[in-house]
């Protein structure tokens, strides 16, 4: 069976795995990124991690997931907030020149969406829109098992979608951007405002209060459900996906908001679009498996 | 040079053209649809129009544009409000069985988007989002010269995108749906409300008042510009297109709203997305040329 190398390069850790074509992780190694020591140090570390994998030289190709928007054609990061020095750095070419194997790089959310589309909850579906709701909100469009990354690698930057123009300005994102209204961070902020700074450490505390029937917490969850429904309806009207695959830590609270969200959503889309499904993300390691699926998708047999 | 047959089947007229691979319309014929006489009558008419084209039998394939969402895989209309009887009718197969040539059908807006992406203002671009602002608002996503029609043919049903949840309910579309707030029909409705029923016959009358410096008309145009900017920003965050190609009759008033719209829009998207361009639609016959481009895109040489 063919195998692929997946690399998950984050600001803190870099992880490398050998993955087979069915998405099984055969071996996985990791190390700290040590970005402070510079790009060449990080590249040398990635190379050494790959070479520590049994039979790495038999792999078809290498795929990398990185945080931030990517110029996938040239294999470079467009923005590298968490990996200073890598903005515009020819990361794919450096790895490809060393191993002489086709190497691809894409944004970590796109890569996770790819993993879910090819092998996870979106397996067998034509148009998959992957959404992760965590501290932030991100998305990825996967059409026929290929990521549509966008002209500037910004496809799926759904955090900035305006779901209500009448909100407070929170940060650099748009007024009423969905990430500032319905992410884990937003729920924490809103929970602190209602229940006090000490009562709420994270969104899960708001969800717990909602589970106990607290009316104010239920209201926060209902608002969140409505805000997310607008976001999902907007995406649906733009690309009409077959399935939304939804992941991220906030889904731990799905029992208090997801059914409400879906009901609102279905009232916001046309009758002919109702076959769209919602599925929860399935892969334990979507980032690294998805990265390994990049060469699977792009290397012609 | 290869040639293709394009069919533009509307509720009132059906037009058929022979188009070469550069998009030149070599011959065009038309007739009234007479949908009241039934589907078989319409099919016989389409066949007869195609057979009236010189050298129709040398064409590579046939493409058809129809009003409403289409199941492109099975070549059937999902909804056929303007073509009663054609919902679920195997229109592509009927034409293909007669001519023994590959036949494709898609929504008329998708087909126009295809025409603009392949041969018009989006020529040579990777990800094109076509938007038509007319009596209604429609869109089409074209990736690498292939239309992404969506699971139910509803990709590009951007009319229903919510740009402000705090508006009046107008019709079956969502409260605050962009088509009810910023289309030609919406501008006519709003103009009548401000200036009186007799003062405004169509959106162009509002634009004329704005050109004369009328403050209320300028306010309506400014609101329209902001509403459209939210719609474009949402689409940009979902798919990050290389270019928006914008067509439709309302663009006749572009001098009073488009620059404002683009300024608002650029303040709603990330710095890294600013390379996105706006171009006005170029083709005189995007519907029929785009229809002819369906076999060009989907028939492998």
TrEMBL record, chains A, B:
Keywords: Kinase, Transferase. The keyword S-adenosyl-L-methionine does not apply. GO terms for molecular function: kinase activity. Gene3D superfamilies: 3.30.420.40. Pfam families: ROK. The keyword Transferase applies. Belongs to the ROK (NagC/XylR) family. This is Glucokinase.
């Amino acid at each position: 069976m063919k195998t692929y190398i997946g690399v998950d390069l984050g600001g803190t850790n870099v992880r490398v795995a050998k993955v087979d074509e069915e998405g099984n992780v055969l071996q996985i190694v990791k190390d700290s990124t040590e970005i402070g020591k510079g790009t060449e140090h990080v590249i040398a570390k990635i190379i050494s991690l790959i070479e520590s994998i049994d039979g790495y030289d038999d792999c078809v190709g290498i795929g990398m997931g990185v945080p931030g928007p990517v110029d996938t054609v040239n294999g470079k990061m467009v923005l590298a907030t968490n990996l200073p020095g890598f903005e515009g750095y020819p990361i794919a070419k450096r790895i490809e020149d060393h191993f002489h194997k086709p190497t691809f790089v894409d944004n970590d959310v796109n890569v996770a969406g790819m993993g879910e589309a090819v092998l996870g909850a979106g397996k067998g579906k034509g148009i998959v829109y992957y959404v992760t709701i965590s501290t932030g909100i991100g998305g990825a469009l996967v059409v026929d098992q290929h990521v549509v990354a966008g002209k500037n690698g910004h496809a799926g930057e759904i955090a900035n979608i305006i779901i209500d123009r009448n909100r407070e300005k929170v940060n650099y994102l748009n007024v009423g951007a969905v990430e500032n209204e319905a992410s884990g961070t937003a729920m924490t902020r809103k929970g602190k405002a209602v229940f006090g700074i000490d009562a709420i450490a994270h969104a899960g505390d708001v969800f717990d209060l909602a589970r106990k029937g607290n009316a104010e917490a239920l209201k926060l969850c209902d608002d969140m459900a409505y805000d997310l429904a607008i976001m999902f309806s907007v995406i649906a009207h733009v690309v009409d996906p077959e399935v939304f695959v939804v992941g991220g830590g906030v889904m731990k609270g799905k029992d208090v908001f997801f059914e409400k969200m879906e009901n609102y959503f279905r009232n916001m889309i046309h009758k002919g679009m109702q076959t769209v499904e919602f599925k929860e993300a399935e892969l334990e390691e979507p980032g690294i498996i998805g990265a390994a699926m990049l060469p699977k998708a792009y290397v012609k047999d």
